[in-house]
Amino acid sequence: MIKSSRWYWRWGVLALVMVLVAGLMTFVLWPGEKTPPQLASAATKSLRAWRGVTYAGTTVNGNGAIIGFRLTVARDGTAYGTLSRDSGAYAELAVSPKRTLLRGNDQWWFEHEPGSAEALANTWVADPPQGVIGLAELSRMTPTALADALSDKDTDGPSGRPSTWRQSGATSVNGRPAKVLTDGTLRFVVSASPPYQPLSVGLPGSAVSRGAATPEPAPDASDARTAVFRSGPQDGAARPAGHVQSAGHVPAAAGEPAPAPALSSAVSEPDKAQVQSTTENVRRVDASNEQAEPLGQRVAAQTAVAVQLSTSFCSTPSCPATVNVTNQGTAPANGTVIVTVAGQTPLSSPVSVPPGGNRTLTATATNTAPPGQTIQVNWSAVFYEASVMGDDPALVKRLMGRGFKLNEPLGDQRANDSKGKPVLQLLDAMTADIGSRTSPEVRKSRLSNVGKTVANLKQQGAFEPFYDLAVNSNNLRVSGESGIAELAAKTAQLSVSDRRTLQYASELASAGNKIVWGNTYKPEGSTDGYKADLQNLTGKQTIQRKAVSGGTDAVVKAFAAAINELSGTGVVPPGFEKVAWIDIDPNASTVLAGSDRHALAKELKKLKLDKYCNGAGGPAFDAAVFTTYPPGPDGTPQRTNSVFTCNELLSSAIDPHKYIQDEMVWKANNDPVWYSDNYISDGRRQSIHTTENGVALPKLAKDNENHWISKDKLPSAPGAKLSPAKSVGPGSVGDRKRSSLLNKIADHRKTSVDLTNAERKFQKNKSVVNGRTRDKALQHYRKELGVTPNNSSIPERLGESAARYHVIPEEFPGAQWIPLPKTPNGADRFDQLYRLKDGTLLIVEAKAPSSDLGWRQGKGRQKNKMVQQMTREYVETIIEAMKERATKSPRDRELAHDLEEALKDQGKLRYVLVKAKDGGSSYAGATLQEGVLY
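Above: the chain sequence. Below: its structure as tokens.
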């Protein structure tokens, strides 16, 4: 037994030795986890061997606009991809060894050349200025160039300085664990396990912007002409004669640094097929567009023509005028001379004038003065070039009638004063109330200030959002002539913060909000005025918004400045919510730029921003919004608005579920881009499976102020009980005229839905194909509906028209239409009301094909419940709302009384649902159901 025990003992010692040797070998072969500098070095070394780089990210152009890009760059510098802005603007970019080609849609050119947007749309332009591309020199970011940019602080890089890389967090890219590295300025996401690959990069600026000399990176072996971080022409080549730097590239306002060339992007190595496809695309574009001209030659500049009109006192039946047209330019002037006076167009004649030449024409108008009276009339003449001003002579005549001299520069603008159709449409929208009764003094002041405003917007690169605000939505509110003068002064010098606020204002306005930007808000009936970055009159919010491109200290200072402004006098109207909004550039040097909501909440508490929550007068803000660009699942930066209240900043609670749900409800009301990405117009979720920060999207309903709230906030009254649906086919429409009208409305609905779907698809995947589909849908929409905003009112009109012109006359013969008073936002009222032959009142709920019955907060005795359309509780709620308007609307008082009495008398009030069928471009009839009220 003793011998056997020794044998076991010896084997035990041997096993222990073997374990120790294996452990030592493991330590030698696997020295442990790589340090951040080692990870950065391994990743940049891997990057240098790539066959190219595929980028998917964001950057900031010279105007402060956020540019999204999807771009593949081969080792030799050949590049092909797309650029986009949230407004729907997009462009294709093709970079060859010889030149750069760009093709943008009309909205792309709205920022840079609005006067020539239609002429430039969907055509290739050669060697556009860097300000137009937006990516600047980064369009040539080859693997070696990118590695050089990242290794500037790496011991393996050309600088030779000690590495300062440290790990700032962990993430996951396409399901692959990764580490987030930073040196305090650059951000670098690297896979956490071998092989160590770059997954995402954040470059806040060139070496120049960081105070160092411009680096000359080593070129890739296959291309000695690669250039990066260079502010001059591509590859250092001289620009061709006639090149112009596009308007709109202006410095930031004093105290606000201009954004440096930079990017924040997911990066990956393209496979061989992708590189080959990039090269073939560029070769195809280059070969098929050999005659593409530089932008300076393509801009549809207005011909330098002077128009002089001569008239005299007239007492005869016919009154003559002489028009002299002089061509002061170097190119032939071909167009049409139009003369207007007193609602007449006595001359509309084609004319051609050679350089330096002139033509004289005579116009004769009818004398419209009453017998024995003398009246003053305004003659106006213009040299109309359809190729520049667009194909809308009626628009030109309207502006002439108001006094615009369209052959003269706007404001103080002298160079490239091209007045394309969008420019004329904006002039038209801003002077729509100028008429025959407008005094000469007001007319002169208005035309001058509007001209200055439009000229400023073109020069400042801010034409696009203001056009959307004033033309496409008509929701900009201006306080009289003083407000117009304020707009002219405001637009003369816009900061990046101003442009971002203007873009947000256009988004709010497109969603139906009435807003005040660039002028003082003067409430009706009040002598007080309130001036802020933005006033949302519909949402009752005052917003101070600051753009930040620097470090964390700059974020803190910007927040303090916004709070200080919100606390000033004459800023926040009574009853308005105070919103401090900090818009952090995706390329900003602060670590907050790429933070998600969870990381941002932790950092904000560390920065002690909650100190603004404990003032003597209560919290200094109601909502603090931070725009950041955390990486999405594939590493692509995603614009994210995180909303914080004092309750959250002061709370030590670990579970943020409630705050996140409150944030999503806030964004449903105040972030139109987010809302359209996640909800349908009537408040239904696009997907019940969507989550944000781990919390499911809430179901939405309307409160008594017509704002979205969580449907689960209050208990729900019983839902609607409906009779079986009865189909009412299109063949029973009463007459051909009504049938034609219903078909037209159905076609308009399809046009609207097609555009909405195309825009949604483009936002999710900004590919060339999706961009072209979206543009085609937009062009068709504009042809059919002009500048009418594309919102839910267009589909809703089909349901309303199906009820009024088909179903009700067919199913309830002799029903008498009862007009209902309008409400400011269309809420708190029934869709339609009729009186039947027996005196019964008939309420109609009209729905478009894809709409469902909505929920809202009740009023009166139902105020603590959510009520659904087509129920008694909903009827009581709307009657209560009509009573509330009774003091200002006697008609509401009368109708509320009649409805209330009918509801008491069983059977004297009926409630039906008419829902139009989806027949595409043709009217397909509707269904009819009746709700149970008793």
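The mean pLDDT is 85.
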